[in-house]
Design brief:
This protein is of the alpha/beta class. The protein contains 13 helices and 13 strands. Strands 1, 2, 3, 4, 5, 6, 7 and 11 form an 8-stranded parallel beta sheet that branches. The protein has a 3-stranded mixed beta sheet with strand order 8-10-12. A two-stranded parallel sheet has the order 9-13. It is globular, with a radius of gyration of 20 Å. 1,4-dihydronicotinamide adenine dinucleotide binds next to strand 8. 2-amino-3-ketobutyric acid binds next to loops. Pfam families: Epimerase (PF01370). It comes from Caenorhabditis auriculariae.
Length: 371
């Protein structure tokens, strides 16, 4: 291939890739944001309160879900567990206990003592850190899931185990990836998540365990991420406020699916509250919107015009991102249990700035662009 042809091919591919994200987003209908964004949770809370135990609850997703459940059903409905100390000043954390998910009898003890009926299993090693410590990833992600499912079987619990876009691989169709398709991931994280999906489905069909699983895209929240490939989409906001610039470890044209935190929490509580008879499967895709680093940078510039981005590619994370879907088809979840995300990219940028500014006491306000 001549140099000119190869440059043209790269540019064409780049345009196609970006077009894939833009076309996917333009076809999606987001619910208009309600005046009260918590109204959707109030509707679900008409049902009787579950007794929930969250593992890995001090990670990126656990604290947010704990707050949502407590908002819906009061302080006593969630038992938070993890193996790390509660960060100082974390006033949202209560009813917290040490629980190592590699210790089955400790899980069982907590379930019995607290009268738990629902296990939400968030403990895991994410994609980037998993590659750095494969034996530990196997322990936490595979042995942990085995232990959780066994306890769910013995005590007849409902159990939620999240999966991820990482459960797909380079041979999976990358645009609008359906619920049922090729799953040949190339990371230990992905391999362990396919195992969790399959084992959960097996426990459901063999033992009747009420296993439920959602494949999340990258989640954007105002809590620090735990070592994944999509983490840049959070770090970019911290850097914008602290330094006005971000150095991204992914190529500017890397399209990945993402979802804002509140939509993620809503998907979990809504899916767990859904009547089992409405579920055609136990593992569903859910997603928000897709973008590239250069597109999120452009969205940030709408509120912070001087924001700058440059690129220092991390080959490991880039290879992982290149093996993942660019967008997910979540029509099954929409059809079967009424899934409907509310946040698109611009709303996510607005809320992330608002939340992080509140955290930093408003000292690093973005300049609002004049219309
Ligand atoms: N954050 C994201 O973008 C996405 C997350 N997910 C899944 O959602 C779940 C939660 O993710 P995050 O909160 O982001 O992860 P995280 O890495 O922020 O938190 C995981 C937690 O697991 C705990 N943990 C590790 N070893 C443990 C052990 N032996 N016993 C008990 N706890 C242990 C850690 O201390 C940590 O607090 C994971 O299963 C992850 O695969 C799926 C797709 C996207
Ligand atoms: C998409 C995920 O599962 C996670 N955020 C990761 O990047 O590892």
């Amino acid at each position: 291939m001549s140099k000119m042809t190869s440059t043209r091919t790269i540019l064409r591919n780049k345009r196609l890739v970006s077009a894939a994200g833009a076309e996917f987003n333009s076809k999606r209908n987001y619910s208009p944001l309600p005046v009260d964004p918590l109204a959707r949770f109030k509707k679900i809370s008409q049902q009787s309160a579950p007794k929930v135990l969250i593992t890995g609850s001090l990670g990126q997703l656990g604290r947010g879900l704990n707050s949502v459940y407590k908002y819906m059903y009061g302080n006593e409905c969630v038992t938070m567990t993890d193996i790390v100390k509660v960060p100082s000043g974390a006033t949202d954390v209560n009813n917290y206990h040490y629980l190592d998910i590699l210790n089955t009898s400790a899980i069982e003890e907590a379930v019995v003592n607290k009268g738990i009926d629902t296990l939400i299993h968030f403990s895991a090693l994410l994609s980037a850190v998993g590659e750095q410590n494969v034996p530990l990833a196997l322990q936490v992600n595979c042995r942990g899931v085995e232990n959780i499912l066994e306890v769910a079987r013995r005590h007849k619990l409902k159990v939620f185990i999240p999966s991820t876009i990482g459960a797909f691989g380079p041979t999976t169709p990358r645009d609008n990836t359906p619920d049922l398709t090729i799953q040949v991931p190339t990371t230990i994280y992905g391999v362990s998540k396919v195992y969790a999906e399959r084992l959960g489905e097996y426990y459901n069909s063999k033992f009747g365990v009420d296993f439920r699983c959602l494949r999340f895209p990258g989640i954007i929240s105002a809590t620090k991420p735990g070592g994944g490939t999509t983490d840049y989409a959070i770090q970019i906001f911290y850097d914008a406020l602290e330094k006005g610039r971000h150095t991204c470890y992914l190529r500017p044209d890397t399209v990945l699916p993402m979802m804002y935190d509140t939509d993620c929490m809503a998907s979990v509580v809504q899916f767990l509250a859904a009547d089992a008879s409405s579920l055609a499967r136990r593992t569903y895709n859910v997603t928000g919107f897709s973008f590239t680093p250069e597109e999120i940078a452009a969205a940030i510039r709408k509120v912070m015009p001087a924001f700058e981005i440059d690129y220092k590619i991390c080959p490991i994370r880039q290879a992982i991102a290149d093996s993942w879907p660019r967008s997910l088809d979540d029509s099954g979840a929409r059809q079967d249990w009424g899934w409907n995300p509310e946040y698109a990219l611009d709303e996510t940028v607005q809320i992330m700035f608002a939340l992080l500014q509140r955290e930093t006491g408003g000292t690093t306000a973005p300049k609002v662009a004049s219309a």
